[in-house]
Structures are given as structure tokens and as C-alpha cells.
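Lab meeting, action items carried over

1. Structure of the two-component assembly. Owner: GW. Status: complete.
Input record:
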Amino acid sequence: MLSRIHHVGIVVRNLEQAYRFWRDILGLPVHKVATVSDQGVRAALLTVGESEIELLEPLAATSGIGKFLAKRGEGLHHICFATDDVVAELERARAKGIRLIDERPRPGLAGMICFLHPASTHGVLVEYAEPFPDDHGGAAGVGGTGTRHP
Amino acid sequence: MKTLRIDHVTVATPDAAAAQATFQRHFGLTPGPAKGLGSSPGVAGGALVVGGARIAFITPAADTALAVALATDGEGMAALCLGVADLDDAVETLRGAGVRLEEDTCGGNRIVQIDPAAAHGVRLALIERSHP
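Predicted assembly:
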């Protein structure tokens, strides 16, 4: 079952500039930062209560996030629901006929993740995430370089 | 500023009731009270609860910022609202940082709407709830 909003993803031009608002003014602590090379992004998770804000900076204009930024500008990108079983949740989505982007879960910044196609969800890009057991253990497994902040 | 949680996410859509029904069916989320969600006029389709947050569905009234967003970007996630511990403190911090904002009320709660240019394109509101 989907237990909570894991994070809301926001596309930004530059992480450091974005920190000035989201971290320094709103006071949200940076929990995890990683470069996810195969997705062409540098991403940061900032904690807000039981959820997080994920800031996404494209590394290349040709990446999915880079194209989003060019077309729509900075702004809201996706919503991610937390689950304790992403494999089962993805199967449930498939059985309901929801169009999928990922046919199987893959490692991401938030854990084992998958995306559903917004065509099935009124234009909302939805992600499921099963956090890694040591969720506070950095970005191990995402194929990037993770750093943690207190 | 002490920012406590994601209060709600707003989905703008031409058919709020249909969008809510889709999310309920797809994700098994439970309907919750829609009172006090957002301040944009329009036809509210209600809200669904997920953890301590809600997803609100709205068909925005003509000539509102959300209506413009709906026309420009199509239906989808259109606004984010975060809960704060002390709205006066939040306003002071934001004004001190030169952030433009509008104070408003919503369902009996005070909110501030933040200039999207300051919030990296996000239509962002802050709310202090007397009963979280």
C-alpha cells in the first residue's frame, strides 16, 4: 500500500541556487545529494516532515529533465508515493491497466523506484519508491556519488 | 523558519471529480476533507489522503493563475502547499529575504502565496493550521 508522499520532485536550473530558497529560507535540511549519471541529473532530497522535496538539476539538455526544463521551465515535475513493496505495487498498477514508464523497478535516489505514465493519471507524473533499508545511508546503489548532510 | 510538512498538492484538471476518482481507483487513497485546501476559486472535486498530506483536485475558475497553468501546460500537478509552525515568522523571514508574497485566508486558516519566481517556478503556498 502507498503510505505517504515520499517526495515531490521539482526541476531547477541549478541546485546551489535552489538551496538559497528551499534550504536557507524555508529551512529544509538537505538529506541526500547524488549525481545519477544514467538519468542525466544531479538531485537533492530535502526533508519536510514525513516527506521530502527532491530538487532535480539536469546535467545535459538532452536528458529527460533537461528537455522538461527547456519546454516548461523550472517547476513541479512529479509526485512520489512511498511503498514497502515496489514490486507488488508495480504489478498492481499493471493489472489495473495503468500505463507504465518503467516495466520493472530500478535503483533511484529515493530507493527502488518506478514511474507511471502521466497519460493514465490526468497529467500527473507518479513515481513509486521503496526506500533502501538504510534510507539515511546515502545514495548507494544509484550509480552515482552520494553525499550526506546532517 | 520552521517548515513542518507537505500539507497538500493541488492537481488542476478540467474534470476534478474524474481525476479524483482515477486517483482513488489507481492508488487506493481515501477521500478526506477538502475544506481549507488552496485558495484558488474553482470547482473543487475534493481531496484524497495519503499519510499526513492530501491531494486536492480542482477545476480552476476562468482567469485564475491555475486556469492559465491548465491552459498552458495541460492538466497535472499545479501547486504545492507546505505547513509551517508560525506563519508570522514565515512572513517575516520571506520579506526579509526579499520574497514577494500575498497573504490570504483559506478555510479559516491564514496562508501566504509565494511569488513563483522566488520558488523556482512552483506555485507555493504556506499554511499555519490551528488544528494540524
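2. GW to write a short summary for the group page. Key points so far: The helical segments of chain B are 16-27, 65-73, 87-96. Chain B touches chain A at residues 1-6, 9, 11, 13, 18-19, 22-23, 25-29, 50-53, 55, 73-80, 82-83, 93-94, 97, 99, 116, 118-123 (CB under 8 Å).
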